[in-house]
């Protein structure tokens, strides 16, 4: 019980005793008004200091009992809350998922002829490598059409069908037997000459385990191609915007995979790992500074802290060379996503 309430109880008891003394005195001095004679009044026992102390002690004891009862009630309530929390914890799980992730620039039709056929070859390579989720770059309209006509029943694709042609050339694809699209959105960055380009950010869910994770497909502009000069400034702006967006998701505890053709080597890695909690599928470290992986690449797969990589592979085989001018990069992924309610 709060101290103030104890004081109130004590004061009430004390006032009661004083009023009793006053009433007794009134009876003694005004017997006619009360109907009691002076002799009868004086025959009654006097209220002594001992009696007063006993009354006060009784008041204190009563206050202590009330206080202890209040403490017991609070302890009982806390115990019930703890029990409910424990029961709720038993209904929560941390779902996990394992899959093969790839990033693949399939070289757009406007850069090299035979785009639809080359894309079908690229898709067959993804199938043969057991890829479940992939970030694709430069997959232009006729290439997307070829991919979906042959593999539309196997793979989902975003943002195809939701954005214009320019913004649809970077896609995230996923094996529909294993994953479902939860959220499909885009983030706007800079492409050649600073032109705005919306790039996909999708949230996928494992159909079996219900684990969820985000995946990007980024393509930052290269320098000295298509008549454009040095694009380093636009790339730098993109990287810091991508750092901002990564940190925004990581702070929520979400699992995030950033993948794509960044057109930067060590500098991209260093900027990302030194300014976020991301790490690369092909190694490297930020311990005591930036230590890039030995592999020399502009195509990257990076993951947030709850994303583990293993078996990173660079496929630069003859079949890949026939399909595109980039290697295929793929890795095994293990994700522990934030807790959800048990199904």
What does this molecule look like?
- Residues 21-43 have low confidence and may be disordered.
- Helix 7 (232-250) links the parallel strand 9 and strand 10 (256-261).
- This protein has helices spanning 3-29, 31-34, 38-43, 49-90, 115-128, 141-151, 232-250, 266-275, 318-323; strands spanning 92-93, 96-105, 133-137, 155-158, 171-175, 179-190, 196-206, 212-216, 218-219, 256-261, 279-280, 299-303, 307-315, 328-336, 340-341.
- The chain is elongated and about 115 Å long.
- The chain has nine helices and 15 strands.
A few lines on this structure:
With 343 residues, the protein is of the alpha+beta class. The protein contains 9 helices and 15 strands. α1 packs antiparallel against α4 and α5 packs across α6.
The largest pleated sheet is described as: 7 strands, mixed
Helix amount: 40-55%
N- to C-terminal distance: 43 Å
Broad shape: elongated
Helix/sheet category: alpha+beta
What value does the average pLDDT take? Answer: 86
Number of helices: 9
Residue ranges: pLDDT <50 for 5 or more in a row? 21-43
What proportion of the residues form beta strands (DSSP E)? Answer: 25-35%
Helix-strand string:
HHHHEEHEHEEEEEEHEHEEEHEE
Tell me the number of strands.
15
Radius of gyration over alpha carbons? 38 Å
């Amino acid at each position: 019980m709060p101290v103030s309430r104890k004081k109130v109880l004590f004061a009430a008891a004390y006032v009661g005793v004083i009023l009793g003394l006053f009433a007794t005195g009134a009876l003694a001095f005004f017997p006619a008004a009360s109907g009691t004679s002076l002799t009868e009044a004086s025959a009654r026992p006097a209220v002594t200091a001992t009696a007063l102390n006993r009354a006060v002690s009784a008041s204190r004891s009563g206050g202590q009992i009330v206080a202890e009862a209040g403490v017991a009630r609070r302890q009982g309530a806390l115990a019930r809350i703890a029990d409910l929390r424990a029961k709720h914890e038993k209904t929560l799980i941390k779902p996990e998922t394992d899959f093969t992730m790839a990033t693949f620039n399939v070289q757009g039709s406007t850069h090299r002829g035979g785009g639809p056929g080359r894309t079908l070859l690229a898709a067959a390579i993804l199938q043969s490598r057991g890829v479940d989720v992939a970030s694709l770059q430069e997959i232009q309209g006729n290439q997307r059409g070829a991919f979906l006509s042959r593999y539309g029943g196997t793979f989902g694709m975003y943002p195809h069908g939701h954005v214009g042609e320019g913004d649809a050339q970077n896609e995230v694809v996923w094996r529909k037997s294993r994953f479902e699209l939860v959220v499909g959105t885009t983030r706007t960055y800079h492409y050649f000459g600073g032109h705005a380009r919306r790039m996909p950010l999708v949230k996928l869910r494992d159909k079996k385990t219900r684990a969820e994770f985000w995946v990007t497909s980024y393509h930052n502009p290269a320098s000295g191609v298509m008549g454009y000069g040095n694009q380093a400034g636009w790339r730098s702006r993109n990287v810091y915007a991508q750092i901002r967006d990564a940190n925004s998701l990581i702070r929520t505890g979400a699992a995030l995979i950033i993948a794509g053709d960044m057109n930067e080597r060590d500098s991209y890695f260093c900027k990302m790992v030194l300014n976020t909690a991301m790490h690369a599928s092909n190694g490297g470290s930020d311990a005591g500074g930036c230590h890039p992986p030995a592999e020399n690449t502009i195509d990257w797969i990076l993951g947030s802290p709850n994303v583990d990589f293993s078996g990173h592979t660079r496929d630069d085989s003859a079949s890949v060379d026939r399909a595109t001018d980039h290697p295929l990069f793929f890795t095994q992924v293990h994700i522990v996503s934030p807790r959800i309610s048990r199904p």
